[in-house]
Amino acid sequence: AQRVTQPEKLLSVFKGAPVELKCNYSYSGSPELFWYVQYSRQRLQLLLRHISRESIKGFTADLNKGETSFHLKKPFAQEEDSAMYYCALKPAGNTGKLIFGQGTTLQVKP
Amino acid sequence: KAGVTQTPRYLIKTRGQQVTLSCSPISGHRSVSWYQQTPGQGLQFLFEYFSETQRNKGNFPGRFSGRQFSNSRSEMNVSTLELGDSALYLCASSPWGQNQETQYFGPGTRLLVL
Questions:
Q1: By the CB < 8 Å criterion, does B60 face chain A?
Q2: Of the candidates B42, B48, B108, which has its C-beta nearest A97's C-beta?
Q3: Cβ A97–B33 below 8 Å, yes or no?
Q4: pLDDT tens, B19-78?
Q5: B58 interfacial to chain A (CB closer than 8 Å)
Q6: Are A51 and A35 in contact (CB under 8 A)?
Q7: Which of A97, B2, B18, B109 has the fewest CB within 10 Å, making it most exposed?
C-alpha cells in the first residue's frame, strides 16, 4: 500500500532549538517526495522537494531509501516556522495525485 | 500571476442535496486536482482533470464527480450529500500534472452538511 506516515501530530520546540519533523513512507519504487507547509490563515504551499536537494528557509530533507524516510530538518527554529507541515508522496504514473501524511503542527516557542 | 481561486469559500447544505464547487487554476496551468480534507482522514485525492478529461481518480464513490472546461476551470459536484461529506475541499493546479511539478493550492471551500 502507498502510505505516508507522520508520527507526530504536534512538535513543540523553543526558538533556536533544532527541529526534525519525521516522515516515513510506504511505496514500492522510486518515490517522489515533497514537504508542503501551511502557515496560519494561508494556503498550502510547497516547501521543498527531494529531487532538488535544496534548502528553503533553512529547512532540508534527505531521502533515505533504506529507512523509507524523508525527515525535515532545521538546525535553529524560528518563531515564524510555526505552521502545519505535510509530507507528500507522488506515485509514479499517477498524474496530479499526491498522497499526504496527516501533518505535524510545529510550534516554536519564544 | 493570480493564484488558484475557489468559489464559494463557504457552503452550508442539508443531507440529500447536491453541491457544485468551482476552481480557477493559475493561468497556463492545465492540470487541476481536487482533494478532500477532514480531521479524521486528512488530505485525500479525489480526482485530476487535464484538457477537459478526467485523467486520474481516487477512491471516492460515484457521488463525487467533476469536469473541466476549455479554459481549464474545473468544477466538482457532490450529489446526495451525506453528513460525512462535511470537509474542506481543496483544488490545486499545475502545468501538466507530471512528475516533480509543484501543485499550487487554492484556499479551499468549506462545506458543512447538516
A1: no
A2: B48
A3: yes
A4: 999 999 999 999 999 999 999 999 999 999 999 999 999 999 999 999 999 999 999 999
A5: yes
A6: no
A7: B2
Taking 80 as the threshold, does the pLDDT of residue B1 lie above it? no
Nearest-CA distance B57 → chain A (Å)? 8
pLDDT tens for A55-95 read: 889 999 989 989 999 999 999 999 999 999 999 999 888 88
3 state SS of A38: strand
CA–CA min distance A7, chain B (Å): 14
Task: Decide if B48 contacts B55 (C-beta within 8 A).
Answer: yes
Name the residue among A20, A19, A22 with its Cα closest to residue A102: A22
> Minimal Cα–Cα distance from B66 to chain A, Å?
14
Alpha-carbon gap, residue A20 to A47, rounded angstroms: 15
